[in-house]
Amino acid sequence: MDSEGLARLDRRIAGCRACPRLVAWREEVARTKRAAFADRTYWGRPVPGFGPPDARLVIIGLAPAAHGGNRTGRMFTGDRSGDVLYQALYDVGLASRPTSEDADDGLELYGVRVTAPVHCAPPANRPTPAERDACRPWLVQELRLLRPTVRAAVVLGAFGWQAALPAFAEAGWTVPRPRPVFGHGAHAELDAADGPPLGLHGCFHVSQRNTFTGRLTPEMLRDVLRTAATEAGMRPAEQG
After folding, report:
1. What protein family does this chain belong to (predicted)?
2. CA–CA separation, 17 vs 37, rounded Å?
3. Secondary structure of residue 10 in the 3-state scheme
């Protein structure tokens, strides 16, 4: 476990200005704000990962939301997608509370690290391929620092899946050929020459488009989290 290394990485991520379009957008949103948050000070910077440095399970999303992580400075915090994710983590015993409202609300994750392949809020929630690739080294470094303990990964959505596979490869795991295809409940094992394998799990993204239409239900999300946590050697709660 390299807690200092991860803390340094988080600070470096928060200061990144590599992608002009993303920098302009995240800062514009932070200035103009949403009416409901007019009295809040927005983070307006890249959002680092969240969770302990000895995590056994990593959850990889897409990018921070303009008025969620970009406002609060914490992944999946302050928006409805985060409400769904953290409720499910709480239900299976992997979070201290069912809500994630702001970075100072006292939420703790138990053995779980939440991150993303793109750390800035993108316009229309759509990073470009060039922005995804520019941000990949941050994810690679984070995964390398987590390697001593991480044993499973849940990737939310097809974008995250496609972005994460090359990052896993650069971080030291072997991605099977042909590459695993994304789908809800998809599973693959990524071997490593110098360590234990990583269990890779696909899950529909916790976006409102999926949760409001029932494409992803709370039960479906809990099932994936339980499966991945069990593979990681954790003991998730069976009820909830």
Report:
1. Belongs to the uracil-DNA glycosylase (UDG) superfamily. Type 5 (UDGb) family.
2. 25
3. helix
- Residue in the structure block whose two tokens are 């200092």: 4
Kindly report, residue by residue over 16-69, the tens digit of the pLDDT. 999 999 999 999 999 999 999 999 999 999 999 999 999 999 999 999 999 999
DSSP structure class, residue 109: B
What strands lie across the sheet with 173-174, from one edge to the other? 112-115, 57-60, 152-156, 195-203, 187-192, 173-174
Report the alpha-carbon distance of residue 24 to residue 39 in Å, rounded. 21
Cβ contacts of 205 within 8 Å, gap of 6 or more? 61, 62, 81, 156, 157, 159, 160, 216
Please give the model's pTM, rounded to 2 decimal places. 0.96
Tell me which H or E stretch contains 188: strand 187-192
Tally the residues of the chain. Answer: 240
C-alpha distance across the termini of the chain, in Å: 31
Phi-psi region of 130 (alpha: psi -120 to 50; beta: other; left: phi over 0): alpha
Tokens read off for 101:
């409202």
